[in-house]
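SAMPLE LOG
Freezer: B-3
Tube label: C17
Construct: single chain, 336 aa
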Amino acid sequence: MTHLTAAGGVPGATGGAEYFVCDVFDASPKNDLGTMEHPIFSLSTRPDRRILSYAHNGTTIEVVPSVKGRATIHDKDIVIYCISQLMAALNAGRAISKTLTLKAHDLLVATNRDTSGDAYTRLKEAFERLAGTRITTNMATGGIETTQGFGLIEAWEIKRRAKGGRMISVSVTLSDWLFRAVQTKSVLTLNRAYFKLRKPLERRIYELARKHCGRQREWRVSVTTLHKKSGSAAPLRVFRAAVRKMILAAHLPDYEMTEEAGDLMLFSRRARVIEPSSAPMLSREALEAARDLLPGADVYALEADWQEYWDRTGQAVVRSPDKAFLGWVRKQAGAA
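STRUCTURE (predicted):
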C-alpha cells in the first residue's frame, strides 16, 4: 500500500493520496444495506474456503474466498467501524475519503474486542480475509445496478513498533462499492449491543431483523427463506433448531422472535430503534463520568438504555443531556 502523507479528503473522493482520519468519538454503529440483506460474510468459526453462489429476487452474488478463507461476520466489525466513522463525518458536513487511518485501540474498543497483544495477529488475519474475499454481483448500491467484481477492502496497512511492539496506526481503503453505500447513505444504525453477540448466527439474524423490520413493527418470514438469507451452511433442520434456541435465549437487541404455524418466524420490535439524529447526544466527558459512577459497566449500553428511556417517556426536550443522563445513571447506581 502506498505510504499516506496527506490528511483530509473531499466529498465524493475515491481515495488516492488523500485519506480520512477516524477521530469521531462514540460514532453510532452503521451497517450498509447490501451486506445486511445478502449473505456476503461467512458464519463459520473455521476457515471457510467454499465458494458461495446466491440468487434472490433478481440479485445474484458469487463470493470466492482466498486461501485464508472467506471474510467472517466478526471481520465485518472493521467494515462497520469504518462506515460508522465516515457517516458521522458526512452527517457533520466534513469531507470524507474511502481511505481511512485509525487507531487500532479505538477500533477494538468500539467493537467490544480484546485489546491484548494477540489483537494484532487477529486484526491482521481479518484484514487478509477482507481483502482476499472476492465478490461478483449485480447488487445495487445507491440506486445503481452494476455487475462487477471486487474485494470488500482494496488495501490495508498496519504500523507497529519494531520487534513486536504496539500498533501505532492502521490504514484501510474501502472498495468503491462500500464507499458508494456511504456516499448515498445506504446504511442503517445498529444497536451497540450487536458487538456483544458472540455467535455468528445471532449477529446475522439481528442484521436481517434490523433490515427487514425497518420502521414497521413486524417482519414475518418462512424458515426456509430465513435459512437462505442467513447464509448458514447448516442443514435446514439444524438451522431451525438453532433459531429455536435463539428464541429461548432472547439475546437479540431490539427484537423478539416468535415461531408461528406454517414454519414461519415472526420478528417484532421491542421498542422503536432510535436514530442518533433524534436522540440527545452525550459528550465524551459524560460517558467517562458514567464509568466512574458504575465501574465495570458498559457505558455505551448505558447510553442506549438511557436514550430508550428518553424515547419511552415522551422524548422531552433536554437542555442538558449530560446532566440528565448522569442523574439517571446515579439512580441506576443506587438501585444496584
